[in-house]
Automatic annotation (TrEMBL):
Keywords: Aspartyl esterase, Hydrolase, Secreted, Signal. Its EC number is 3.1.1.11. The active site is at D245. One of its GO terms (cellular component) is extracellular region. This is Pectinesterase. The keyword Signal applies. InterPro entries: Pectin_lyas_fold, Pectin_lyase_fold/virulence, Pectinesterase_Asp_AS, Pectinesterase_cat.
Amino acid sequence: MAKCTWSLSLSLVIQVWLLSLHSVVALEAGNSGRVRRTVLNRKLAEGGNMSTDLAATKMDFMEWVSYVGSKKHETGTSEIFYTSAAASGNVITVSKSGGADFTTVQAAVNAVPSNNKQRVVIQIAAGTYKEKVNIPSSKPYISFIGAGSGVTKITWGDTASSAGSTFKSASVAVNSDYFIARDIAFENSAAAPPPGAVGRQAVALRIGGDKASFYSCKFFGAQDTLYDYKGRHYFKNCFIQGSIDFIFGDGQSYYYGCELHSIASSSGSLTAQKREKPSENTGFSFVNCKVTGSGMIYLGRAWGAYSRVVFISTYIDDIIVPQGWNDFGVSSHQKTAFYGEYQCSGPGANSKNRVAWSYQLTASQAAPFQTISFIDGSSWVQS
């Protein structure tokens, strides 16, 4: 009898679990821990019968329970609630063509309750959403899930001049913690300015929340495309386009497998990191990335006195100024900035004429920047 009761209870629990998986991103159990759309999700979306699938998914459910139990905890709460929607089942849909909860992304964000404690997935259908989006700091645990970075895009065209500042020019501003974006593009459509132009900075996305992750996303802009403002951030398999300082800010961020694409017509800079004190843990680490495009650009400019940027195992095309790095016109930054390269390849990786104050790193010097431990990511990053 006890066995029958357990079987019935398990069935009910699994049914609740299945409901929470409907049209949300589920966490795949197993060695990889990757996020994927499960076959079961597709069956449910296509009208599959839950009761007939139940027996076949008991093993999946138990593996999922085991996975959750194995996750590290932070402040007493399983990290699964920070990085997956599977536990909450809170889904908001957006589509320009109707048939969804909202037709704009901002309306969906507005619908999320302040100070929410569970992940809310905002599923954004294919389309170009011409709007300025702001996520306030009071709304953590939000995910933007697009239909693909080639078909789902949020775009606006403000500049520092039109918006009042570079900070305010962002097409999408994320101020909350535990944000996740996947399979979506962010764009600032303002025209690329010539070097030295005033007020033409145009941010596609500004990220100022802590523990944010971006997977298979695209960022389009020219000057100041991605404002990596502050907080710990993870970027995987992303495409980031720009011309001048197109990844900038004082974030503590790890970029893995990303393509950094210059559209500079002449001169420019890939990064402008703003670490200002030696006590700050901030900096940008690029691992297994690609640097491509046009122009002759610097790998980085020292926006902050203690600016810190490292490139590891990255392919660099022939678009880099031989000196590699720039002190932002402040010679004292040469004594305090930390710019390093380790085991990079490609014609732009030639270190022969690099500035004397940059580093060709040893294995031990590169080690702190080589994994997600640089952003304390072992408990919150989905690899």
